Structure formats: structure tokens, C-alpha cells
Amino acid sequence: MEIVLAIGIGVLFASGVWLLLRPRTFQVIIGLSLIAYAVNLFIFAMGRLRIGAPPVLEKGVPVDPSQYADPLPQALVLTAIVISFAMTALFLVVLLAARGLTGTDHVEGAEPDA
Amino acid sequence: MNLLEHFIILPIVAPLIGAALTLVTADKWRRHITLSTVLLVAATSLGLLWASSTASDAQFGEAHVYRLGDWPAPFAIVLVSDRLSALMLALTSTLAVAALTFSFARWDHAGPRFHALFLLLMMGLNGAFLTGDVFNLFVFFEVLLAASYGLLLHGTGVPRVKAGVHYIAINLAASSLFLIGVAMIYGVTGTLNMADIATAIPNVPAENRALLEAGCALLGVAFLVKAGMWPLGFWLPPAYSAASAPAAAMFAIMTKLGVYVVLRLSMLMFGPEAEASAGFGGPWLLIGGVATILFGAVGAFATTSMSRIAGFCVLMSSGTLLAVIGAGAERALPGALFYLIASTLAASAFFLLIELINRARGTTAPAETEAVFDDEYRDPYDDDAQEVRFLIPATIGLLSGAFLLSTLLLAAMPPLPTFIGKFAIIAGLMPETGNAPFSTWVLIGALTFSSLATLLALTRIGIEVFWASTLSPPQMRAPEGAAIGALLTVCLLLTVFGGPATRYLAATAAWLHSPGDYIQAVRSTEPSIAPIAERER
Hints:
Chain A is mainly α.
């Protein structure tokens, strides 16, 4: 399971970095989104991968921490998802404004001389 | 927990509430709400500064720890107000009061959400300076970055939007690195509390040490992007020179936030107690800092735009601080902190001044005919025409005087506080006995060269602007003059009260060099209410 997740994170991140370096603003924003997905999976994986282990303790039952998944990275991922989602939306607005003002979707705000 | 302790959270909560209020109230109330919030936060920050400078009472120790939700420290987020945080808070509030006052002349009504964004930026900065938890630090970073994206675009126009695209993209990428670093540190140490991480580091098994150091390095890269270290700082001069004057004046503290976090975490995590990881990253900071200074100097020579020179001065100042932190000379740290305060104030005043000088030259950007959100934006200059032109003839004289003073400040000439800071750095870098290593000489050379470069670049542009071109007296409104005057006065006061300031900073440096006390303060604060389990028993 680890190797599948590791390859998945790696492919997402590599694609994201490649897109981030492309000259069109839409490619940049998709690249940043892919990087954000890879990062979220990575945070999740840092809490160790467990199957069938609940993250929430039950009240009144004696607690054996080894039977539970680490809840903290899951909470962190939730926060990170919300933040990256909001930032992507904000960036999209700026990209639209840049497109409207400069008339091009090139990241430099002008078409390179052919 | 007594009522006074709750003041620690006020610099975060007050701007949040203020920002929310400015969104729902009528236009005429916004200024009042914003100004009173900023003044309230400034008063609180000065109070915290005073509390930490007189910290001898056994009740709190030197760090005032505030537990959010009253949970004990390693399990929940704490806010820590110690000497360094209180100092940075006070510096932020000083800049905020000046920038806000300046904006009252025209910039604050150029767009609809200026006040809310300004307050949110302040909330993010204060939170980042106060928090004792790395993930919480990330959240406050995002708050302040989101606000800064809006502030950078304030006033719209093609240059701002173009600079904004680059600025947002690089910061989003840096935030991803930040998260990866935090996750790796959590994966190795199992905690996010800064003090708890510091205690865990000496016990990290050897096979995990590489993972931990990789995580810290990624985290460091995220902060160094903010601090503008070469080669991560190319975004800074275009972004800062495109921003409107009050926004740029506030941005001057944002590079220092990167420096602050690097200083805080490296002192806490990689002190001598860290054993195998002690001094991690120091050589990189030293090399990167010196490269930043040189890059800033060359950039300042190469450009003919005043606001870009100001951007390169900001780079040089953060390069200086990073290099001194990297050099790890304990006795140079008070000087570095002194230089941090003085150079931030000077850069901020200079950004405000540039706006007035450009107005005198008639080179302010022309009004955008095609604003993106047409109905909401106004040209900040459009009411000049209707106004009765009452011009002070001495305005040009005042401007050139202020320009001269900021030039000397940025170039660190005696007897100004930046000089005192740099002199103390150099004095602290020299070993008490024997010869200094080669790297120290390189650093001292770079520090001296940066002063020379700043002086030459600013003198050149000063001659061009004040002697070789015709200036028409600009419309300087009272708030604008007051804001610049206040910032420069604070700089001069730093010289006059150099003694007490240096003593405070020496104590701050000593406090930073004994991370055990910080860890003790965070971990020993007991919840005021007994845990539920104990009460039920």
C-alpha cells in the first residue's frame, strides 16, 4: 500500500511542478492544484497508513492507542484542503483579472516575441 | 488565569473582529473602526513589550504563555509572548499606525475592502509572531498572505495585477513546501508544538535524522522565500514596487517575518542541545545571506526606479540578518535585532516617501481607464482637481530633507540607528581573542559593501530627482506628512534611547540562546481548570 501511495504522490507532484513551469496561467493554476493534492496526501500519509482503525476514541472504553489511527494529520489535512481550495479560488480571480487587463493568458502578461 | 493574561490574544482577535465590522458597516464608520482597532492593538503590543521588559516576576517567568481552550501545552495550541514576539508585535503596530494614517489621505478609499484587508494582514502578522505551534503558524501565514494578495492588488492597474500573479504563484508553491516540511517534522517527532519539537530532537533515532533535517530544510525554504533570500527572492522587487504606498510600507515587515521564524526555530531546535543536529543550516544561511546582500547591491545599482531600489534595500536588509543568524555569533545577535528594527522602519518610511516624490515628479501611474471591477474602484488622485490647491512652498524642501535622512538610514551612516546596529553586528562577529575565520571577513566585507552600494545608488537617484529635474510641489496632505515624519522620528528616537534599547535586545538575545527556558515556560504552565477526567473521579 505504501508504494502505491508514494508513487501516486510523486506523480501528482511531478506533474504539478511541470505544469507550474509552463507559460500559460491556466496551466499554472492546475499545477498548483495538483501540488496541493499531493501535499494533502503526503500529510495524511505522515500519520502512518492504517486500515480499519478509527481515529475517534470511544467514551468509557479503556483506550489502547495502538488500535486507533492518528487523528491529528486528518485534522491537518482538513485545514490544508480548505486553505488550498480558498487560495486556488482567489488565484483564479486574479488570473481572470490579468487576462482581462493584459488581453493574454501568458504569465508574463505579454506574448513572447515570435 | 487572570484577566490580564487574555491580553495576549487581543492582537489576533481585535483585528479579526474589526475586519468583520468594516465589512458590514457604512463607509463613514470604516475609518473609525480601523483606526481604533489598530490603536488598541498598538497599545496592547506596547503593554506586552513593557511586560516582557520588566519580566522578573516568578509567576510567569520571561515568557507569557496563553493556552487556547485551556488545554495543556503539547496537546493544544499555545500563544507565547516573550521578548522577541513582543518586540515584533510592537514593530508591526508602529508600521500599521503609520501606514494607516498615510492611507487616510487618499489610498484607503481607492478600493472598497482596504480596511478589512489591512486588519486581516495585521491579524496574520500578529498571530504568526505569537504562536507556539508550527501548524498554527502555517494558518496565520495563509491569513496574512491572503490579505497581502488583496492589498498588493489594491488600486488595480496592469503592473499590480501582473506582479500579483507572480507573487501569488510563488507564495502558493512556498506554502506547499511549508506543509510538506511540517508533515515530515510531525511524522518524525509526533508533535507540532515548537517547544515539544525542540525537546524531541535530541532523542530522534539516527535513521530518522535525515528525514527530520529534510523536513526542517523544506520548512526553511518556505520561510526563506518570504524573507527573499537569493535565489528565492527575485519576486520581491517587482511585487513591492508595484504595491500602493501604504501596502508596501506594511510589506516591509513581511520579509522580517520570514527572518523571525528562521531565527526562532533555529535557536529553539538547533541549539547546542540538539546534539547531532546542532547548528543545522547555519552555513547555508550564511552563504545565502551574503549572496542576497550582493544581489541586492547589484540590483540597486542596475535600476533607475526609486521603488525598485527600495525593494533591493529590503533584500539587502534581510540578507544581512540571515547571514548574521547563519554565522551563529552569539554576541552579534543584539546588533542584528537592532538593525532589524531600524531597517524595517527606514524601509517603510522610504516606501511612503517615494509615493510623494513620484507625485512631485508627476510620474505617478496614470489612472486606469479600464478597472476590472469598474464600479468599486476610484482613482486615488481624482479628488485633487476639485480641491483648493493650497501648497506649502517648503514641501520640496521637506521632501528632500526626508529623502536625505532615509538615504542615510538605509545606508547605515552614523549616528543613525541602522549604523549602531551594523556596528554592533561587526563588533559582535569579531572573536574576543585570536583571528576571525575567513567567512567572518567575507560577511563584514559584504555588510560594508551593502552600505556603500545603497549610498551610491540612492545618491545617484537623489541627484537625478532633486537637482536634475523640475519638481512641482506635490499635494502633500497632513496625514501623509505625519506618517513619514512619525516613522523617521521613531528612528531618531532609537538613536537617542540606544542604551535602553540595546539592553533590551541583549536580554532578548540571551533569552533566545537559552531555549531551555522557553521550553520550560511552555511545558510547565498548568491548566487553570483540572482536566475533566480528574474532576469526574
